[in-house]
């Protein structure tokens, strides 16, 4: 099976969404901007689900590949991606670099790479319901998160780093494994099937809507709102539900506060609540389904132009790393003033143009080439 252009298109949209969430104006007059509301939380979740899809595709059964070889290649990939993430954490970009968390997340896939779509789907649903409860129960007994981006210096305190990567940090693996398992379940399906495309759209769309409905229903009562305000423990000043509601629109940096089980039913970007996981998995399924349908609609004649247009989706690791580096350079040069390196339009157009050039020339991204060749070489050496 060659590249599935619909998956590249979805991955391109995820990358554009993450860049938008990083750089878009959050709004004026106390209101959160519309593009931020659309992309925050959803784009990074889509990225994680697509990581699971990719793992399922590259580890599918093949005559020249054994489960042991696939696991060894994936382990190597995880180490390399985590290392790249640590290096990207060195410059002050002001961004919560996700790659080190991704590297650890890939390790979670190792025991289940041979599972069927049905077993993976059951695992994803179960994990999405249980892991937020476990997180809420464990975090009061763990060191508080530093909210620092992992760097090589973080290795000096391995217990703190492990705690943040798995439970208390920006993208905690404990809850984010839900995205990985959901993506692997999707990747085990026949993505060229019209039935699969339709069900991804229908189930994803309705799942996302129902999750938001649960949030609205759970937070209707004054008692529920009061318990959330009373237990909010982050740095923003919150004196009323109106204050907290605006904070929830901007996100919660990976986890909810503890102290009230009502946090499990709150929708907020990067909160890791049950509702957050359900909504973002649903929205990711919807985007993947729509992307696959778009490729089917354009037909064979339109596939190649679409592949070029969405070429950034085939080299997201490279383009994400460049995006982080450029933002860091812009912050260093601008010293708080406007800079072209921090301009959203520059980043969006840049990744699209670079992705199109690489797709037109049928080149792989440099980091994709680097990680892929080393992972393959390690697996072949073992065999």
From TrEMBL:
Keyword match Ligase: no
InterPro entries: HGSNAT_cat (IPR012429)
Keywords: Membrane, Transmembrane, Transmembrane helix
The UniProt record lists the keyword Membrane: yes
Lineage: superkingdom: Bacteria
Residue spans crossing the bilayer: 12-29, 35-59, 71-90, 96-113, 120-138, 169-187, 199-219, 277-299, 306-326, 346-363
Residue ranges constituting the Heparan-alpha-glucosaminide N-acetyltransferase catalytic domain according to the UniProt record: 3-195
Protein name in UniProt: DUF1624 domain-containing protein
Native species: Ornithinimicrobium faecis
High-level lineage: Bacteria, Bacillati, Actinomycetota, Actinomycetes, Micrococcales
